[in-house]
Design brief:
The protein has helices at about 15-30, 50-55, 70-75, 90-95, 95-120, 150-170, 190-200, 220-235, 250-260, 290-295, 305-315, 320, and strands at about 5-10, 30-35, 60-65, 80-85, 120-125, 175-180, 180-185, 205-210, 215, 220, 240-245, 250, 270. With about 325 residues, the chain is α/β, with parallel strands linked by helices.
Amino acid sequence: MKLQNKKVLVTGADGFIGSHLAERLVGLGATVRAIAYYNSFNSWGWLDTMSAEVLNDMEVVTGDVRDPSFVRQAVKGNDVVFHLAALIAIPYSYQSPGSYVDTNIRGTLHVMEAARDLGVEKVIHTSTSEVYGSAQYVPINEDHPLQGQSPYSASKIGADQIALSFHLSFNTPVAVLRPFNTYGPRQSLRAVIPTIITQIASGKNKISLGALHPTRDFNYVEDTVTAFLDVAASDLTSGKVINSGSGREISIGDVAGEIARLMNSNIEIVCDKDRLRPEPSEVQRLRADNTRLKQLTGWSPRFTLETGLEKTIAWFTQPENLARYKVDIYNR
């Protein structure tokens, strides 16, 4: 499937990955309808930072995926749906688990019902590597057991199963893309890489972090967006769960050291107890097996960790971008 001239809906387009995806789709020549979460400030999130040229080629609608009537109207008339809208912060899911069930599971149900009833050609549902929990073996392939080690990950397991059930029950053309740890411009400070960069950029030498020993498979946002596009374009991906990751892992402590090196900074890492997960909830190790994605689509990562970090640091250290973040406040 070529996405050029296709009518495409992106839920969660106001967020980190969603905004990059919507922007790329406009560049590919798709007709893009972008959903931003409704709020009284009339903010479109990261869509507000895009050029007028891009926004003029994009229809932005505001609403809430928890509202089935809104979702149905948003899906209507589109050929492809990229479903990224979700609550994603793990620490906040400890405080408000019900909201994660409502948004992530019921929101996904509303998207799938609308896609089924309106005859959408392809739905790409966004999962997360967090559904695997701590790796029982590496690299983690799509057959790895699912472990709900936080309310967030449990809600995403439920959302994934809702999406897959519509393929099995109604032949709805759904693919589940499971990105490992994406980073890059526009990411929230709830994620570790922006947290490190912004603290250093703000002149701090003592950097507050949580656990340093867990490993993650970090991926630059442009590689993750390419995976979304490739999965949508392939005729072989419906009904499949597909990992998107580099196949490499690095500890949080080591990635902090690499960022400090690239920013020419001598740092001291301080453990902030508020940033620690409950021990049984902490995911200790993640490393993707990306074989299926490569075989089905030909995808491969273009950015090394060093190159991606350089681009991310360059964006966050621009004064107008750094000013958007509350560096002294821990973002749950």
